[in-house]
Amino acid sequence: xxxxxxxxxxxxxxxxxxxxxxxxxxxxxxxxxxxxxxxxxxxxxxxxxxxxxxxxxxxxxxxxxxxxxxxxxxxxxxxxxxxxxxxxxxx
Length: 91
Hints:
Blueprint: H1 5-33, H2 41-50, H3 53-57, H4 64-90
Helix pairs in contact: 1-2, 1-4
């Protein structure tokens, strides 16, 4: 089945809706499990997602393990979001 403008729009909207939901949650989950202090969790996640990961990594108390976990959380957040696009394609 060729990708039409309509199907692209539907898949894109599904992806955006899900990534806005899952990405912050997965980044937070993985980073906190790796030791991200709760006192800076919101600042770290905001900077990670809206600013730059490089600046987030420079915040006080951030370790290489936390950064690696945030990367893994980012990967899983995108993967979970794309899963819903895949479901829509199958329908």
